Amino acid sequence: MTGIASRSQLRMSLLRYALVTVPLVLLIGTISGRLAGAGVGNIWFAALDKPAFMPSGSAFGAAWTILYILLGVALAMLLHARGARWRGGAIVLFVLLLLATFAWPLVFFAFHQVGIAFVLIGGMIVMTLALVVLLWRIRRGAALLMLVFLAWLGFAALLVSSIASLNPNAAEVAPEPASTDIVL
Predict the structure, then answer these.
(1) How far is CA 110 from the centre of its chain?
(2) Prediction pTM value
(3) Residue 149 reports pLDDT greater than 60
(4) Mean pLDDT to the nearest integer, 113-122
(5) Domain containing residue 41
(6) Residue 184 domain-assigned?
(7) Nearest Cα residue to 36 out of 120, 154, 96
(8) Which of 29, 54, 90, 113 would bridge 134 by S-S if both were Cys, CB 3.0 to 4.6 A apart?
(9) Are 32 and 71 spatial neighbours (Cβ–Cβ below 8 Å)?
(10) Residue 40 — very low, low, confident or very high, per pLDDT cuts 50/70/90?
C-alpha cells in the first residue's frame, strides 16, 4: 500500500458523505415542494392549460426523487474530492444551484410567476453547464450525474415555456371559489 488510505477506506469516506448529502438534498427538496404546494393538488396549477406532453403527477414525484438522489450523490463526490483544483468554486456553484432548485417550486407553484420560473430554469441550466465543466475536471462521475439533471432542466424549460404560451395570464388564473351556499 503506497497511499495513506486504502481504496476501501476511500470508498467508505465517500459513502459517509453520501449518507449525509443524499438524505439532506432529498429532505430539503421535499420540504420545498410541500411548502410551495407543488404538484397536481395545487388548485392554481390544476386550472392551467397544459401541453399534451405533460407527464402525470406521479411521474414528477418519481423523477424529482431520483434527481434529488443524483444531486446528493454528485455533491458527495465533489465534497470527497479533497485537494482537487476548482473544488471550492464548484462547491459554491453547487450550493447556488441547489438554492435555485429549492426556490423554483415556490416561484412557480406558490407565487404563480411562470415567467420568472422560466428565467430561473434558464439560470439553473447555465449553472449546471458550468458545474458539469468544473466537475469533469474534478470527478467525471459527478459530471455525468449532473448531465441527467441538465436533461431534466431542458425538459422542464420546455414544459414551463409551453405552459406560459398556453396561459398568457397565468398569474391571474384562479379557480372558481368554493361556494358556501347550501343547495337543497
Answers:
(1) 16
(2) 0.86
(3) yes
(4) 96
(5) 7-171
(6) no
(7) 120
(8) 90
(9) no
(10) confident
